[in-house]
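pinning this so it doesn't scroll away 📌
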Amino acid sequence: MGARFAWMDQARGVAIILVIVHHSMTWTGLFGLQVPVALVAFDDIVSPFRMPLLMFLSGMLVTRSLAKAPGVYFAGKARAIAWPYLLWSVIFLAGTGTLTIVLVPNVLLFPPTYLWYLWFLFAYYVAAWVIARLRIPLLPVAVLSLAASAFAPEDYRISRFFFLFTFFAFGWWWSSSGIVTRGSPRTRAMAIATGLAAGVVVAGITVAGHPTRYEAGYAWGVLALIAALALMLPRVGSGRRSAALEFVGRNSVVYYVTHYTLIWALDVLLVDTWGWSEPWVVWAAGVVVAVICASALCLLRQRWAPIGWLFVWPAGTARVRASA
């Protein structure tokens, strides 16, 4: 990946780590332990921004993907998004003993697990191809999707689907509009400061006890913060200090599909089998083990092809990256 995309890997890496932190906290609570107040407060602060940032970054890759022939485009998305979604849905449901005939159709139609993000992402890429084919303007699509999220039902995450598509479309527009190259340095600095301030306001509202995650009424602050990051981070550059985050970002699908199942299995061992009861320790162990195991799988799949098949459907000698 070119140097100009390093910041995207960094941002995606941060978002994925925050997802792992959140889900380890979630499992700590589900296993009957009292989640520390400090963890809850931190999670509240970042919760409005995690998934919108991931969707924005995915949207930024649409233009490059659409340059491919339709067959290559859809085959790539099926191998790198649909396949790990289906495989790891079955792995998680079977591992937790919840795989039933009733749930099988839901895996295809209404994602019943933590892997809903990949289901959304595949649907968004299908929608993107249609939008590009029909030459529909992106900003009106984003606005209409946000409006739809305010009225759509919460059932089956329908409201969330429309809400996050706003950020996917916004990322697509951002990468294709050339907006980053416009304006003076002073204008960009003011935009960055305004966006960061807007993000702080939304985070503060969340901490105060008002729901902001996936809420259309607070999308302005989330969009503003993401825009500020998109203006600021490309100037930070890449180096040894950011290498680990970039690695996570480049291999985000591995961390995403494995972490939840790994944390669940670990907590079964720590809490149910060994009787551990210190929530900070259980939470931290979940984060550390999930990151280490996923990192090991990333390295192993570079050396042993069958490991790679857990995350990307094999396509002869062609390698399709998970971030395609």
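📌 and the second one:
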Amino acid sequence: MHQGAGLLRRAAVAARVGGRCLRLGGKSQRRWLASPADYVAKQVAKSSLDKAIDALQRESDAFEDVLGVDKPTVEGTDGGIELKSSLRREPNGLLTATAAATRDADPFALVSGHITSLGDGIKHLLGSDHPVLQACAQYFFELDGGKKIRPTMVLLVAAACGGIDDRQRRLAEITEMIHTASLFHDDVIDKADTRRGEPSVNRVFGNKMAILAGDFLLARASISLARLRNLEAVELLSTVIEHLVKGEVMQMRPPPSLGNGDGRGASDGPEWSVSLSPLEFYMRKNYYKTASLMANSCRACALLGGNDEVAQRAAYDYGKHVGLAFQLVDDILDFEGSAETLGKPALADLAQGHATAPVLLAAEEHPELEQLILRKFEEVGDVARAERLVRDSDGLRRAKDLAVAQAEVAIEAAQLLPQTQHRDALMRLACMVVDRTR
């Protein structure tokens, strides 16, 4: 049914082309473009519905090839495929030097006025047509005491690349809405009771309303994104939403390369996943769940500011590697933080069955961790045993080194932007991400 509906939509698109006969090299293809409705009827009449759908799919694919509707407008938006080289990198002292050189730069102070008005802008975008959904979203935004690092990054990139305009301010709001929607959905999936020390939306309003509120935020964000009137920006942020889903699915299963002597594991994931090491799989998951939003939002911001490809790529790389460093530190704090500072129970990742960098790196020293990872720490005593093995390894230290290395790649990307106080603030922000304690 879904496939048939998709084909009829393509037929409608073909009709809107105006009956023009594009030269595809075949008579049936020319008939498809000249009179799509008649062609559909004839195909269904001459064969079974299944065969007609297959035939129409082939014709539709040819039509799409001509119009280029499946070709990405923006190349290279899937940074998950470019992680191996940065994983081999060791810290080189750049983070320490940058922290000293930019100690007077305050990234949050520079855009504080814009961040203060962010909440009002989001409330305006939410509208008032659906008071219950609006109440769910506003509950979160009013209790949120976070630094709003994502819109801060977007606004700093805008300022570093020439100045903040209305579309870039709107993009910052859209970025925060997408992030918040992902938190609503994550809390339902993880059965979380708290978020940043306060009752989670799903606990206050129930799972159904939390899911619908997340969907509502994504819908409003998508409408606002379309109103930016920039196809490439729409594609960048739409890709982020796809990545959020991919990342969540990846988090639900152990790395496929664990548990088999030949290094190949589960076959129910994407084909590419079996060729990745456990750490590479984890980092790609982190790109999808965390870094993609930062990377593609920063790139879209540079794009909306009329900057060239060099600046757009620098903004993208900065956001990607800050995002990867951010998630690595999050996973380290799960072992080193407390419930009071984290706003959630310590060792929450282990309790939810998630194998993070400290665990995966510790497993290289303690192979018995692999079986615990594969069964998602579900047996009695698994969490305590995994914690003990991680602390009896170099896993935490190596994870910290990896976070520092990612932040240094981000600093190098920021150095490609024009030299301004806002660029220095971006570099300072990369240092702060690694040094944070909550």
